[in-house]
Design brief:
The complex is a heterodimer of chains A (340) and B (247). Chain A is mainly alpha-helical. Chain A is built from 15 helices and 2 strands. Chain A has a domain at 26-256. Chain B has one domain: P-loop containing nucleotide triphosphate hydrolases (Rossmann fold, 3-Layer(aba) Sandwich), CATH 3.40.50. In chain B, 37% of the residues lie in helices and 24% in strands. The chains are: A mainly alpha (340), B alpha/beta (247). Chains A and B meet through helix 8, helix 9 and helix 10 of A and helix 2, helix 3 and helix 4 of B.
């Protein structure tokens, strides 16, 4: 790595650590930003690197959210009694119970999501192109309907998460730290993976899956593993977001295909799919723009967001990084694989 | 010594169309064998049968003595039987060197291999093969930006990178300019002589295949029409009829 790169990474690390202290009023929003970065990065694994457009990745987000909720509550109370609307509020958690539960939840969430990805991957990753995309769309919707019908986790009225034991300002910082760690860990893990033979296999599948097979690449295993990896981090993102949000609603929060489900695709495309930094840049630009719309165009925010989406797809099909790379190939030169 | 590839009575039908009818061919290790025939005579269908793209309806295909007609493409490739495509297929958004690295035999090595970086020796081999086909200076270029002929050379290099024992080449010289054809023929001969790769080549360019192959099979209407040395084939009236229409 060159000195310039080190300086850039250092500056980013410093900014990451200082951000919630510089803008304490926005700490929750900043935590959300890291969740969004994670969503965009994990979508890009299949959508960008492997060329499989998944519209159902939200499924793993939701599964992680519910898995964590069930474990966090279930360790200390009866979940059905906790979610029963008649008895709500009577069951509480000591700080120790809260943190222990959260730790266990953060362990259970990625495991549950990964297992789901392995199972569904084995089932539908034999489909290609638009067929795969539509099948995944069904998965996300089915997840929401299933959770809404499942009384054990509160059904359609949702799941109220245990309340953070500390004071309000500390809560924001705490979840910022969690979300930032997740975002950075996701980036590091994916970057590591893309630099291995695994990354070559992903790109080969994207460019010509039949050819990859004819060369003896284990395409089935790579495809399922790739989905499992994104599900792992999506599950964690779901668990953190569920706690940050406080209330898990099945259709609007956990399996919300119309918001997070679409946003993760847009962020990756906006930033430049199939690139390492593209999803990160896309998430930052998208999240900031979205928040500005919600603040300054209230009432019209959804219209503005819709227009933004159309503009992104029409004028930036390659994404910000894709464009930059085309215009200034020297500065944003595509990494030559194998050059180490 | 038994044959490296032994196709016995292979048949393939698509609905009512008989694409291959009881075709038997054999290729010995170290040979360069040609496969010719008019358009629609079933050459590519036979390749697809051998490479496991589809299953045959009857007959048997043995590679190095083992039956492979029920294996999947991936598993057949792992045995060292690699094919190229008539419509050139490379990984278009990847660089040339990445194309070669993605063709490395190490991908057969399971999960630990997938989680490892391409080794130094592997990268050196990739560069060697790029040099071998004359694409060394295109190393970092995205494959989709190469000319058609260069993509053919790249595809050939990828196939060699995989360390094949038998290479099925589907019209390797189609659509390439004459200078490049000579270069490619030279590389095919060298791959055969120096790397010990056995070649089975579909070719429409008679000058090329008569020059390259020691033995030639000719298909027509899905059936094996003739077999022999280039001289035999050239002199066979049935072959002429098949290409130009009888009488």
């Amino acid at each position: 790595m060159s000195a310039r790169r080190w300086a850039l990474h250092g500056a980013l690390a410093l900014l990451t650590a200082a951000a919630p202290f510089l803008l304490p009023a926005l700490a929750v929003q900043l935590a959300m930003l890291w969740i969004m970065v994670t969503l965009a990065l994990t979508w890009d694994t299949l959508g960008g690197q492997m060329g499989y457009n998944s519209f159902g990745n939200i499924l793993f987000f939701g599964i992680g959210m519910y898995a964590s909720a069930i474990v966090q509550v279930g360790l200390f109370h009866d979940v059905a009694a906790y979610t029963d609307p008649a008895g709500s509020g009577s069951l509480t958690f000591t700080p120790r119970e809260y943190y222990l539960g959260l730790a266990a939840g953060l362990l259970a969430a990625p495991i549950a999501a990964t297992l789901a990805a392995l199972a569904f991957g084995a089932l539908i990753l034999g489909l290609r192109g638009p067929y795969f995309a539509i099948a995944t769309l069904g998965l996300g919707i089915a997840g929401g309907e299933f959770a809404a019908a499942w009384g054990y986790v509160g059904g359609a009225s949702g799941f109220l998460m245990p309340v953070f034991p500390g004071e309000f300002g500390r809560r924001a910082l705490f979840f910022y730290a969690l979300a930032a760690s997740l975002g950075i860990a996701t980036f590091a893990a994916l970057r590591w993976l893309y630099g291995r033979r695994f990354g070559l296999a992903l790109n080969a599948i994207r460019d010509d899956e039949d050819k990859a097979e004819a060369l003896g690449l284990p395409t089935v295993r790579v495809k399922i593993a790739a989905w499992a990896v994104s599900a792992f981090f999506l599950g964690l993102a779901g668990a953190i977001f569920g706690n940050l949000n406080g209330l898990i609603e099945p259709r609007e929060v956990a399996f919300s295909g119309a918001t997070f489900g679409v946003w993760m695709v847009l962020m990756a495309i906006l930033g430049g799919k199939g690139t390492m930094w593209g999803p990160v840049v896309g998430a930052v630009v998208f999240h900031v723009t979205k928040e500005l719309f919600w603040t300054y165009l209230l009432g019209w925010q959804r219209v503005a967001l819709g227009v933004l989406i159309v503009v992104i797809v029409l004028f930036f099909p390659l994404g910000i990084l894709g464009h930059a790379r085309r215009r200034w190939p020297e500065t944003f030169r595509a990494r030559v694989e194998g050059a180490a | 010594m038994s044959a490296l590839l032994e196709v016995r009575g292979a048949s393939k039908r698509f609905g009512g169309v008989v694409a291959n009818e009881k075709i038997s061919i054999s290729v010995r290790a170290g040979e360069i064998v040609g496969l010719i025939g008019p358009n629609g005579s079933g050459k590519t269908t036979l390749f697809n049968s051998i490479a496991g793209t589809h299953q045959i309806d009857g007959g048997a295909i043995a590679f190095d003595g083992a039956e492979i007609s029920r294996l999947r493409t991936v598993d057949i490739a792992r045995l060292g039987l690699i094919r190229t495509y008539q419509t050139t297929r490379v990984f278009k958004q990847m660089t040339c060197v990445a194309n070669l690295l993605a063709a490395a035999p190490a991908f057969g090595g399971g999960t630990p291999a997938l989680l490892a970086r391409p080794e130094r020796a592997e990268r050196a081999r990739a560069d060697e093969f790029l040099f071998f086909v004359g694409l060394a200076d295109k190393r970092g270029m995205v494959a989709g930006e190469l000319s058609f002929g260069q993509q053919k050379l790249l595809e050939f290099a990828m196939a060699l990178m995989r360390r094949p024992r038998l290479l099925l080449l589907d019209e390797p010289t189609a659509g390439i300019n004459p200078t490049l054809i000579n270069a490619l023929m030279d590389r095919m001969r060298r791959a055969n002589a120096e790397l010990g790769v056995t070649l089975l080549v579909i070719e429409h360019n008679m000058a090329v295949i008569m020059n390259l192959a020691r033995r030639i099979y000719c298909l027509a209407h899905g059936e094996l029409l003739a077999e022999g040395t280039p001289e035999d084939i050239r002199a066979d009236p049935r072959v002429l009829d098949a290409y130009l229409g009888a009488r």
